[in-house]
Amino acid sequence: MLQDKFGREIHDLRISVTDRCNFSCVYCKSADPKNYFPHRDLPTWDEFLRVARVLAGQGIRKVRVTGGEPLLRDGIVNFIGDLHRIRGLTDIAITTKGYLLPEMAAVLAATGPVRVTVSLDSTDPAKFARITRTPRSCEKVMAGVEAALAAGLKPVKVNIVLVRGFNDDEIVEFARLARRQDLIVRFIEFMPLDADHAWSRGVVITAKEIVETVNAVFPLVEIPRRSPSETALRYQFADGQGELGIIAPVSIPFCGQCSRLRLTADGKIRTCLFSLREHDVRHLVRNGATDDDLAQFFTRVVHQKEPGHRINEPDFVQPKRTMVYIGG
User: Fold this and answer.
1) Which of 274, 278, 279, 277 is nearest to 319 (CA)?
2) What pLDDT, in 10s, does the model give residues 185-228?
3) What value, to the nearest 5°, has the Cα angle with vertex 30 and ends 26 and 34?
4) Which of 11, 147, 188, 263 is 20 to 30 A from 302 (CA-CA)?
5) Treating both helix axes as pointing N-terminal to C-terminal, what angle do 101-109 and 138-151 enclose, rounded to 10 degrees?
6) Residue 177, SS3?
7) What is the DSSP string of 93-133?
8) CA distance to 13, 162, 169, 211, 227, per residue, from 236 (Å)
9) Taking the CA of residue 252 as centre, how many other CA atoms within 13 Å lie in the half-sphere pointing to its CB?
10) CATH fold of the domain at 9-326
11) What angle do CA 74, 78, 84 make, to 5 degrees?
């Protein structure tokens, strides 16, 4: 098992397979004209798979495929199927905006067990369009959620990034959604990773506020964490109908139990979402490195993992890359 110098075991890998996205969400990327990595800079599917195989041999058990929008990249379904065939990987998941799920949910389900998380930041079409800066898309994403449920891609999670003044008035409505459908609804605190640098503490809806808002309408009972490295605080409704999660990196950091590595769409390893330094594995893969070379590289990189993200420290520096280029 990979272990950092703080004793944290690393068993989760997030692979961003593209920086392209069909949305331009305010908390993620700029509304400016698109500026993507050249295709030659993106690792091939075989290169992604080789990295995953080596890391699986070092104890990685869970892989989450992200983007950008991973469903935009040709070959994504075959890639998910190939991940299932890597010895040691026991949990495959994908995070998507959901816009393409109506057409792709069934074929994803056919590859094997896949957990799906859909980003859905409003149930109001007009507000959804303002947040994503993409018109006429809310209905398609809602259809994608239904398609994922119908295809058996369970559990289906819906992630909401809460931003004060944008969608904080929908907290209770999303709680109703969790009670009404077979979904796990998860609220995420807004993090300083936006390209427009609109983040401030004043627009963060904290975990405490979320719990208090929901609890006033639907009493909640906290669910014990399944493992120390689990990112979400979990709650069920007191009457047993549905589940909520809250990911609170700003108000309740969970860095001390972090178990994750990230592989960006251009082949860099990041040891923290807020890393100021990246480690180029694509260069090694393309220049003759053996699997043993790669394993030693990952061991060295993990040993350099940061103790925490420092959002709450006076010397915090926002990474130059935004979420769409790091991988959600």
Assistant:
1) 274
2) 999 999 987 766 778 889 999 999 999 999 999 999 999 988 87
3) 135
4) 188
5) 20
6) helix
7) EEEE-STTHHHHHHHHHTTS--EEEEE---SSHHHHHHHHT
8) 27, 20, 21, 11, 17
9) 14
10) TIM Barrel (3.20.20)
11) 140
111/170 Cα distance (integer angstroms):
35
Per the listing, tokens 């069934």 go with 106
| CA 233 – CA 252 distance, rounded (Å) | 10
For residue 198 the two structure tokens come to: 């609109």
pLDDT in tens, 256-270: 999 999 999 999 999
Strands (E), 224-308: 233-237, 243-247, 260-263, 268-270, 279-280
* 206, two tokens: 């904290």
Q: Is this model's pTM higher than 0.90 or not?
A: yes
3-state secondary structure of 2: strand
Task: Give the CA-trace dihedral at 168, 170, 176, 180, to 10 degrees.
Answer: -120
Name residue 93's beta-bridge partners: 64, 115
Give the residues across from 94 on adjacent strands. Answer: 65, 116
Residue 35, pLDDT > 90, answer no
Rounded (10°) angle between helices 125-132 and 138-151: 100
Estimate the crossing angle of helix 291-303 against helix 45-57, to 10 degrees: 70
**Amino acid of residue 13:** L
Q: Give me 167's structure tokens.
A: 């969608």
Q: Give me the amino acid identity at 87.
A: R
* Local confidence band at 33 (pLDDT 50, 70, 90 cut-offs): low
Specify the residue for token string 């109506």.
102
Model pLDDT, residue 192: 84
Note the maximum CA span of the chain: 59
38: tokens are 């050249």
Phi, psi for 164 (deg, rounded to 5): -60, 130
Q: Which residues pair with 13 in a beta bridge?
A: 63, 261
Per-residue pLDDT of 60-76, as tens digits, reads: 999 999 998 999 999 99
